[in-house]
Amino acid sequence: MHKGFGAQQVLKGVNLDIAKGKITTIVGTSGCGKTVLLKHLNALLLPDRGEVLVDGVDITKLGQKELYETRSRFGVLFQGAALLDSMTIFDNVAFPLREKTKMSEPQIQKKVEERLEQVGLEGMGYKYPAELSGGMKKRSGLARALVMDPEIVLFDEPTTGLDPVLATGIHQLIARTQETFGFTGVVVSHTIPQVFAISDYVAMMANGVIEEINPPKEFQSSQNPVVQQFIKGETEGPIQVL
Amino acid sequence: MLFLLCRIGRFALDELSEMGRMFLFLLSALILAFRPPAKIRLIIHHIKTIGVDSLSVVLLSGFFTGMVMGFQGYYSLRKFNAESWLGSATALGLLRELGPVLSAFMVTGRTGSAMAAELGTMRATEQIDALYSMAINPIKYLVSPRLIASLIAMPLLTAIFDVIGIYGAYLVGVGLLGVSSGSYFSGMESSIVFNDVYSGFVKSLSFGLIITWVCCYKGFHAPPMAAGVSRATTESVVLSFVLILVWDYFLTSIML
């Protein structure tokens, strides 16, 4: 895929295969285009050149109705959780159920409370997003992302800006829910090496392309200088910094 | 020289594509507004924020506008010894022109800017992306209910502005300046025809559409940062004011 914004080329020929039922983590420096890549996966952004195939179907060429149907298979956790701030947490998590399904209120209530419990927010449904801490917002966002039982879940920097303890907690939550629900997970992150613990595959993004994709063990022992520089956090190397 | 030509050309093309985008935005909002399911609760909520919450500012501005019209109307009509036609003059002015335009300005300043800011902030915090990701059309959910609500609320607010304005002019003209109360209202009754009320009504409907359309568009497409939201808010108010006045001219020329 190729994607540019004005004069700036962000994706310069990205090739990536996401394995079904596994967690693939995309790592890279800040501003390398990881979020841009992630937003292509459910066609929030369209590439200038290239295609995005979901189960063999190019979603960039779909009509509006089919595109919306495809998007229903996704759950997305945005970086700031992107909760609708005029509603309570409960209403936020219930929102996709109320809008997209014909479930009755008691059924919706049961499902929402189940999800809130699974993310450790039992009894907090009455609060508004403005009253929550960053970690609680992320957990609410995760509950909302999972409430429709999606096949594919996208996580945009789920632990950026969180303290190490909470970051591990969120990572474990992602792994636990992936095991329970069996979805295909795509995580964009730069909190390494913690995120390696929950990843089946790690893809390194640099210079607008995917430099390498491997299971965490092979990734960490890779001889690729770009990968090595990133893992070690060095300023000297093929990745240009300051 | 060539550079200047390029700049002008670039500007013209940008403005043209912006107008096209705005028009397509309005079209989809209108089409989606009439596609089921109807979001009745949302519409009622927006009638409250657009209509009910603007009531106090409309009452205040209507009242003082009416009082000023009482003074100015009396002063002008006096030159023709026609003070007894004050009721007719203020009612004509309010119903046909000042009622729709001024109440539209009040609503723009109060609610229009709030709509732009709200949608712009939602864009900046990825809430609009979240709606797309949940396979929910953000225009249907955010814009269409506001559009329907403003079509309901604006004529009502204009009517209230008219009534309170007429009363304000009555207080000044009859109460302060000695116009006879009988001729105030009888003059009004003989001069006003249905077309006067109707043209004011049509204006208020179209102004409501313009306000919601422009402010929602600017907010929805605001660059996702603080400066972007603030610029969107300012631009939406300014553009609404300008479009209201321009459209007012065209409507007046058609309907007279």
Explain what this protein looks like in three dimensions.
The complex is a heterodimer of chains A (242) and B (256). Chain A is an alpha/beta fold. Helix content of chain A is 36%, strand content 19%. Chain A has 2 domains: 1-73 and 152-186 and 197-242, P-loop containing nucleotide triphosphate hydrolases (Rossmann fold, 3-Layer(aba) Sandwich); 85-149, no CATH class. Chain A contains 8 helices and 10 strands. In chain A, strand 4 and strand 5 form a beta hairpin. In chain A, helix 4 crosses helix 5. Chain A is globular and about 55 Å long. Helix content of chain B is 86%, strand content 0%. The model of chain B has no long low-confidence stretch (mean pLDDT 93). Chain B has one domain (42-255). At the A-B interface, helix 2, strand 6 and helix 3 of A face helix 5 of B.
Summed over residues and divided by their number, the pLDDT of chain B gives a mean of: 93
Overall CATH class of the largest domain in chain A: Alpha Beta
- The overall number of domains of chain A is 2
For the termini of chain B, the CA-CA separation is 46 Å
As residue ranges, the low-confidence spans of chain A are: none
Q: Output the structural class of chain A.
A: alpha/beta
The span between the termini of chain A is: 27 Å
N-to-C SSE series of chain A? EEEHEEHEHHHEHEEEHH
Q: Return the domain count of chain B.
A: 1
Query: What portion of residues of chain B belong to β-strands?
Result: under 5%
Which H/E pattern describes the elements of chain B?
HHHHHHHHH
